[in-house]
Amino acid sequence: MTLLQRARDARNRLLAAVDDGPEAPEGPAARFAEAALERHKREGMELALRARFIALGVIALLLPFVAPWPMFLWYEAVLILLALNGWLQRRIARVGQSSPEVLLIIVDLALMVAGILGPNPLDDNGMVAAAQYRFGAWRYMLLFLAFGLLAYHWRTVWGMGVMAAGLWLAAYAAIALFAPGDPALTQAALAAFGPDTVYTDLMNPNDPLGFMRVQEAVLFLLMAGILAVASRRNARLLLSHAALERERANLGRYFSPNVVEELSRNDEPLKRIRTQPVAVLFVDLVGFTGFADGRPPEEVIAALRGFHGRMEAEVFRHGGTLDKFLGDGLMATFGTPVASDEDALAALRCARAMRDVMIAWNAERERRGETPLRASFGLHHGEAVLGDIGGANRLEFAVIGDTVNVASRVEALTRPLGCSLAATDAAIARARACPKGAAEALAGLDRRDDQEIRGLDRRVTLWTLG
After folding, report:
1. 384: CB partners within 8 A, 6+ apart
2. What sign has the CA pseudo-torsion 174, 175, 181, 186?
3. Has residue 264 got a pLDDT over 80?
4. How far is CA 25 from its chain centroid?
5. Cβ neighbours, 10 Å, residue 274
6. Alpha carbons within 13 A on the beta-carbon side of 52
7. How many angstroms separate the CA atoms of 331 and 335, rounded?
8. How wide is the angle at C-alpha 239 spanned by C-alphas 234 and 245, nearest 5°?
9. Which helix H or strand E contains 379, and what residues bound it?
10. pLDDT, tens digit, for every residue of 54-66?
11. Which ranges in 194-256 belong to alpha helices (H)?
């Protein structure tokens, strides 16, 4: 078994130790994972490019102090090429396999090897090629493995280590076999230390010291393997984070951002079945069945999307929860999953804002020659039961009880009452009890006493807005 095969086996064992499943999810989660990987690659490439520029800049400032004039100018030119190559990598970077990126990575490593071991045209001393190994400049190649960790997939990081080791050993073989030496230097080493001594080999500038070069190549492979494991672990953490983002996005379809934040901070707050005060708002498009009759399906769906999108935005803006869409209507709750003293006021404000939004939207529709749409709003506040319902494979957070039924029937009463908004006296009383902002929300409401609501054994007072 070759040294390279052994290194690959060691790498595989390392990766197997952290491999607990597929790298990327399948199904609905894949879209979130792909977006996370795309964002990670883009941010990683930006960070790697900045790190490259900073590192190469520091080396450029250091070179005049460690290399004589004018030799260091050649190395400065190599640094400029490396900086340009890093910029090109950033320009063409994308998620997935990319042959141009692999080619530019090879160019990176080849430039490094050539800069370290190649003949310097500005060197007047005629240094033999084997002597270039004596300065330990191979350490600079480890920088590019670190750059790879910031930007690339773990397989690419490992591949960079293999390529670095391969190029380094290939350069050693070329120098050992073909590079001219200076026999006088070998004779001087023999004269100083005698034949067959360790010091003669170490001090002979013509000897490329193969055992040292092999150690350096193995070090490249070991560093690449460790960095690949770290990159693999980071990728798995990234995908786990993408799964959490997906869950938050799903919550965001139903809850306002502040409620999503509250849910994310607590452990399973929705599974506890409980009774608590809730404000329930029903919204409906009046006469939408007649509107849809005879119209193209595209126009009907576009109208529904426009309506739902505008209403949903107001629910979330006022801190409510979108319980469900009901065809040409919706149900929203305020005080779920956490109740507050201002839930009824928030629901009333939301209903009035929705009404204003509908007025503005209808004005736009009329300017475009489209039929305006009429929406009605019903609001009630009272005790409701909260909890998960459904089967083992699919659960839904539900708000149920008489409060929900009353709110729905109050919305239906807007037709015979000739108004767009109706709220129960219980909801208005809770809103009026709020110390701030109640007066504006209550302005213009008309009191309607002795109203009959189906399902209740008593008549109630409603407040309406035309």
Report:
1. 275, 276, 277, 278, 280, 333, 399, 400, 401, 403, 404
2. negative
3. no
4. 15
5. 11
6. 27
7. 13
8. 125
9. strand 374-390
10. 999 999 999 999 8
11. 198-203, 210-252
